[in-house]
Amino acid sequence: MITFINPTTFHRIFTLIKKELLLLWQDKQTRIILIIPVIIQVVLFPFAATLNVNNATIAVFRQTVDQPTTDIIARLAHVNNFSHVLVLDSQQAVEDAINQQKALVVVQFPADFSRKLLTGQSPQLQIILDGRKSNSSQIAANYVQQVITQYQHDFLREQPNYQSNNQKPNLNNTPNNTQNGDQNSTPNSNQNSLYNPIYNSSPNNNQLVIRHWFNANLDYQYFVLPSLVALITTIGVMIVTSLSVAREREQGTLDQLRVSPLTTLQIFIGKAIPAIIVATLQSTIVLIAGILFYQIPFQGSLIVYYLCIISYGLSLIGFGLFISALCSTQQQAFIAIIVFMVPAVLLSGYISPVENMPRVLQYLTEINPVRHFTEITKQIYLKGADFTIIWHSLWKLYAITLFMGSFAYYLFKKLI
Questions:
Q1: Is 178 a residue whose pLDDT tops 80?
Q2: Which one-letter DSSP state was computed for residue 133?
Q3: What's the whole-number average pLDDT of the chain?
């Protein structure tokens, strides 16, 4: 141990680290790969990678023209999430609107809607969804239902001598994802509705107040930016480590390393540390952009946050140097990075929650460092979690680091 930390050993490792960083900066192709994607992802991901429904077109079909349906259409037109509200004039137009994707959602008012509304009964509505865009259509349908529910509530409270009979309006949803869908079917009163409001007949009735912690406005950028730190860190570490040895092979300088005074462990460390430095700088760019440009407040400790970034980088080094030891060319290394990245991101919880995956895949995500760091970065960035909370995920990163680092070093020593 004393031999390892003596000045000569430190100088050798430092020189190798400096050489690796200079090569990364001088190589135009590598420099572009490490800088341009970070900028593109920071600019595009928060706007493109979103599940929010914006600028959607919805359609309305009413069998009778009356004041209540006209007022509802006017309210729908003022919803910021909807750019256009199409008023249809026939049942065939309803089919065309869904089949030709002219509208994401179609709202059908029955002929007796206003009459039942005036008499205090529970009017039925049919909301037809485009099943080809199931997630977006469900969200849009929820917006529509909130507007209609609020209108019914306001309308009934304005009626003289109105007393609630505790009846609930029935809002039926009919998904449609085929050319011959069942959007023409009559709404069934036994169908489950997404939202069944209860009208308050007096100020003393209980009300459900919903509060969203850590993201009060449900802004999807609060989810994307912290997760983007994990994604960019992964790309940075994998590129630097995976290409390092392959580049030495292609340039014919690997033999020079073998005959140099550097030991295998010193070469291993000298190849690993530059990756952590590059990934930390990339993460800092994303962090600054999230705080200053996207106005997403950082709630946690920067010291703990950067400690976790370094720990995450260490857990990825084993994977990167494992690839680097096996690949003979940089092209092979790039392919191996893609092979690793795609399942790692899919199983990280970035695309869909881990809890929604099959049980077997949930167990498989435990060996995925991207999943653990994605959880850590959200907890620190949005919740301000301390070390005791993130330790549940952090120790798994250290376990992955120990196992993959040892395995990669074994291959590194055997093949290099």
A1: no
A2: G
A3: 81
Token pair in block for residue 342: 């795609």
Q: What total of structural domains would you count in the chain?
A: 2
- pLDDT for res 365: 92
Q: What is the pLDDT of residues 192-224, one digit of tens each?
A: 333 333 334 444 456 677 787 887 777 778 888
Half-sphere exposure of 335 (CA within 13 A, CB side): 7
Task: Answer whether residue 14 is part of any domain.
Answer: no
- Regarding whether 120 and 198 lie in a shared domain, the answer is yes
Provide the whole-model pTM: 0.73
In a domain, 302, yes or no: yes
Query: Are 384 and 255 contained in the same domain?
Result: yes
Answer with the one of 209, 234, 251 that is the final residue of a domain.
Answer: 209
Distances (CA, A) of 19 to 249, 315, 329, 330: 16, 23, 20, 18
In which domain, by residue range, is 397 found? 20-48+219-415
What's the rounded mean pLDDT across residues 12-21? 86
* Residues with Cβ within 8 Å of residue 385, at least 6 apart in sequence: 300, 379
Cβ neighbours of residue 49 closer than 8 Å, sequence gap 6 or more: 224
pLDDT tens, residue by residue, 303-326: 999 999 999 999 999 898 888 888
- For residue 288, being part of any structural domain is answered with yes
Do 266 and 409 belong together in one domain?
A: yes
Crossing angle, helix 264-288 and helix 7-26, to 10 degrees?
50
**Average pLDDT score over residue span 378-384:** 90
Residue 3 lies in a domain: no
Q: 3-state SS string over 327-394?
A: CCCHHHHHHHHHHHHHHHHHCCCCCCCHHHCCHHHHHHHHHCHHHHHHHHHHHHHHHCCCHHHHHHHH
